[in-house]
């Protein structure tokens, strides 16, 4: 299949964060991570659990906006916290700001006492990040989103978890960050963010210019892999036939 | 057994300015909006409101009823950001306690258990500890040596929740797929008030629905209000979904003081039957 879009590369890069996770709940936030989680389960991560975004655990592969085909469990909000505390979950959240240690802000931009832009609030980010693996999706990679210091630490990064002591770091893991430009992880000696791969058509210089802090470079920076034909077919005809992905990441 | 039926106005007459009030539901889902509207018509003020926040927080903030908001998020779900909450925060005029959602649940659970706190990992390392400087950690007395957040009990003077059915005694039934945290709110409160779409005889509650839907028990409840459309414009499945058009109208009106004045004059000036006639039927 031809004409792979940037959005489709991002879907696959998001799907990849759940590779090898086994029988845990994948919790995507945002259009592209949601497509990615469904794609991961439909292909290389068949044991993942997915919710309908409300209170049900569901099986099958279904289109955005449709009803999932099979209900396999009940997961109301109260039980989600029980599940979080067991660690059997990997969430991908969409922060407005992320820093070099993986601290993430979904609460408010500017001073907390009087924000310039109030967002949702910390939601479950503090608890998520100290209980189970967390990844991040940033649909617009720019200096305003990849910042020197986030305004309100909602999701806890490596430096803050270490400073808070063993109880904070015990189950803490920021697995990966995916943006519209590349893929990043924290597999460095001091857990600073590392550029793992750039998406096809993106240069390392572009990523550096769009990032408000110094990235660690992984020797030879790879190119993010392209979707396979089977993955493209699933994305285009089964999971996102309305092409909502291109609204989240328009063609560059 | 006590007949606990009341009107919205009778519930509000039992509340006092300065109280801490918990509001059930979640985001823009199954919020006790007819009780919120009754508070808007009252002279209550200076409230501390604990909520998994939606337009309940928005309306009360817009009317200047809230001194402190205790929340993990405030959102309209299909419209992520709550306009009045944003405006109040960005004006810097609102006292807030912003917690992780799980901490909020544990605070209610601690209050329900009559404990001073419950330990949790949630909050450690985050700025929740910075912006809530009264939060303390507690050391495990066992060999693990863990140091955890001691989430303080969120004791409520009153709780307001909305369910699908109830009997006159206060047994409440949730027919939708998610009970949210409503019974925790009721148990954390000195007095809990349950509004419902329809009051039915007790024996009818389990004729067509399983007993597991009876989430609220009468020992938790001080008053029951029959409030058809009482959650409007938030969702109250399966009785009705969210009124998305009305929610959009709410958000549009919130963007402009003149439009908001018009909105409140049009929908919120009268009692609940007038609201139903103007907003729910339309």
Automatic annotation (TrEMBL), chain A:
Query: What are the protein's UniProt keywords?
Result: Transferase
Report the InterPro entries cross-referenced here: CoA_trans_fam_I, NagB/RpiA_transferase-like
Q: Key word Cell wall biogenesis/degradation present in the record?
A: no
Q: Name one GO molecular function term.
A: transferase activity
Q: Does the keyword Ribonucleoprotein apply?
A: no
Q: What does the record give as EC number?
A: 2.8.3.-
| Superkingdom assignment | Bacteria
Any one Pfam family here would be: CoA_trans
Q: Which family does it belong to?
A: Belongs to the 3-oxoacid CoA-transferase subunit B family.
User: Which PANTHER family does its entry note?
Assistant: ACETATE COA-TRANSFERASE YDIF (PTHR43293), CHOLESTEROL RING-CLEAVING HYDROLASE IPDB SUBUNIT (PTHR43293:SF3)
The protein depicted here goes by the name CoA-transferase
Q: From which organism does this entry originate?
A: Phytohabitans maris
From TrEMBL, chain B:
Does this UniProt record's set of keywords contain Lyase?
A: no
One Pfam family of this chain: CoA_trans
Q: Which UniProt keywords apply?
A: Transferase
The first-level EC class reads: transferase
Task: Give the EC number(s) under which this enzyme is classified.
Answer: 2.8.3.-
Q: Which SMART domains match?
A: CoA_trans
| InterPro entries reported in the protein's UniProt record | CoA_trans_fam_I, NagB/RpiA_transferase-like
Q: Name one GO molecular function term.
A: transferase activity
| Protein name, entry field | CoA-transferase
Species name: Phytohabitans maris
